[in-house]
């Protein structure tokens, strides 16, 4: 949306104890590009996303978002905050602030992090709630919302940040099937606005529809990547072929 | 066995009720100070700040490990002998200090447990939107921990109200001290202490009522 700057990741490594989860990951994302990451469970897709905003601190590697370049080895607290303020994250389990209403979930960061006035933040939140079809739920607490509504608020909270990069960590995986459609619809709308997105998902049809590029990850590596038509229909690597046979 | 002197008891009520404000004052000031101190210590214990952590753990250990009465005597009779600026400490101040430090040690552990009980997603979401640790703690984590800790904290407050009666041992004429004086004048000890027991009981019951209101308020985000 407001972004004109790309993202670059280079030499990213992450281990948990003795287990190496990300192995020398490098990836460039152009402004406005929508990249979908697919791959078997436990291959580091979520960890990749979580390393980009230091929810999990990478061991080595350089992450550049817009004008900010952060080397994992020397990352300061200010660097980490900087990355987090240039990115937005949509969680698998929604992770809405349980003590805040739907509207407050959206205004929270606008007021505390971006220093907007309460009235500006509320106006933005109400616009987003309208866009996500949740106007009548503005004053409801997360506990009173369905899974689909919670995730739409979660996406709304991320939209409000006007981030250089929106990260989606399996946003529909925890949802009852009946709510998946409305969440994917909202993500389509976000994608249409040429928001730069990096999405981990198992929704292959959705990936095919909205992705500019699909990245296949396996065992901590990026195995292969390309436009949806190429990667999904004519994969080259045997691991990609075998994965796609299993999921489609 | 003799009959209870109800008339005496009735005349004692307005006299003793006049001391309720002082009791509540000591308990309330003590509670507010203890809450602040306990929250700071609980947050420290969660983040385990180097060096500071040792002092906080020592503090909690000492104030949980020794009787409140011993602590009050230490503050009122002992400390002024070694710290000259405390020479003029009065009984009310010493009681509030004692209650604050003693109960903050207990409350710190309750609050720490409540903080650790806040779901990990709440911490991660706060971090992901770029909040600082102070913003995260003050606006997301502590308010949610408060809901969990509230019943226990109210219990400590009840204990604190009753604990103010120890101020009498520091020469403060508060509710208990006044009762003692009245009883010594009339020799009607049973009646006098029965009245003061009833007054404490009613205060605590009133608080229990307030507690239910507080819990409804704190649970409003969790009603379906």
Distance between the termini of chain B: 58 Å
Rg of chain A (C-alpha, Å) = 18 Å
Radius of gyration from the alpha-carbon trace of chain B, in angstroms: 21 Å
In percent, how helical is the residue content of chain B? Answer: over 70%
Q: Please tell me the overall pLDDT of chain A.
A: 93
Largest interface: A-B, 29 and 23 residues
Strand order of the largest sheet of chain A: 6-7-8-3-9-10
**Which regions of chain B have little confidence, pLDDT < 50, spanning 5+ residues?**
none
SSE topology string of chain A: EEEHEEHEHHHEHEHEEHH
Mean pLDDT of chain B: 91
Strand content of chain A: 15-25%
Q: Report the major sheet of chain A.
A: 6 strands, mixed
What is the count of DSSP helices of chain B, taking H or I runs of 4+ residues? 9
Count of individual beta strands of chain B: 0
- Please give the number of β-strands of chain A: 10
- Termini Cα gap of chain A: 33 Å
What is the helix fraction of residues of chain A, given as a range?
Answer: 25-40%
Task: Indicate the proportion of strand residues of chain B.
Answer: under 5%
Oligomer: heterodimer
Shape of chain B: flat
């Amino acid at each position: 949306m407001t972004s004109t700057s790309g993202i670059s990741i280079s030499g990213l490594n992450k281990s948990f104890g003795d287990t190496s989860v990300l192995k020398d990951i490098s990836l460039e994302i152009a402004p406005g590009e929508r990249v979908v990451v697919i791959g078997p469970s436990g291959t580091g897709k979520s960890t990749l996303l979580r390393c980009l905003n230091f929810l999990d601190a990478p061991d080595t590697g350089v992450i550049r978002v817009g004008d900010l370049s952060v080397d994992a080895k020397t990352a300061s607290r200010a660097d980490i905050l900087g990355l987090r303020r240039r990115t937005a994250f949509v969680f698998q389990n929604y992770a809405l602030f349980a003590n805040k209403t739907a509207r407050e979930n959206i205004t929270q960061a606008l007021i505390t992090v971006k220093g907007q006035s309460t009235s500006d933040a509320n106006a933005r939140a109400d616009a987003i709630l309208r866009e996500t079809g949740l106007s009548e739920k503005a004053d409801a607490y997360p506990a009173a919302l369905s899974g689909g509504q919670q995730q739409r608020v979660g996406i709304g909270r991320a939209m409000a940040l006007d981030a250089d990069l929106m990260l989606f960590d399996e946003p529909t995986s925890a949802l009852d099937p009946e709510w998946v459609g409305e969440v994917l619809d909202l993500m389509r709308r976000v994608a249409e606005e040429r928001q730069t997105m990096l999405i981990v998902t198992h929704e292959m049809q959705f990936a095919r529809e909205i992705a500019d590029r699909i990245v296949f990850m396996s065992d901590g590596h990026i195995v292969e990547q390309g436009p949806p038509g190429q990667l999904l229909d004519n994969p080259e690597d045997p691991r990609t072929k075998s994965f796609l046979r299993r999921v489609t | 066995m003799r009959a209870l002197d109800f008339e005496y008891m009735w005349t004692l009520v307005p006299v003793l009720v006049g001391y309720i404000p002082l009791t509540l004052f000591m308990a309330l000031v003590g509670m507010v100070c203890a809450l602040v101190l306990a929250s700071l210590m609980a947050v420290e214990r969660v983040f385990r700040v180097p060096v500071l952590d040792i002092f906080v753990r020592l503090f909690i250990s000492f104030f949980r490990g020794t009787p409140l009465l011993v602590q009050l005597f230490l503050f009122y009779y002992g400390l002024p002998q070694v710290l000259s600026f405390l020479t003029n400490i009065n009984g009310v101040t010493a009681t509030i200090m004692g209650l604050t430090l003693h109960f903050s040690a207990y409350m710190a552990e309750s609050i720490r447990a409540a903080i650790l009980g806040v779901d990990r997603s709440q911490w991660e979401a706060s971090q992901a939107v770029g909040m600082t640790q102070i913003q995260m703690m003050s606006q997301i984590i502590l308010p949610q921990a408060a809901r969990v800790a509230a019943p226990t904290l109210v219990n400590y407050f009840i204990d604190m109200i009753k604990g103010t009666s120890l101020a009498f041992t520091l020469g403060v004429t508060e509710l208990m001290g006044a009762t003692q004086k009245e009883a010594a004048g009339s020799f009607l000890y049973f009646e006098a202490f029965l009245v003061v027991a009833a007054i404490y009981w009613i205060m605590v019951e009133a608080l229990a009522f307030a507690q239910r209101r507080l819990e409804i308020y704190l649970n409003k985000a969790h009603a379906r």
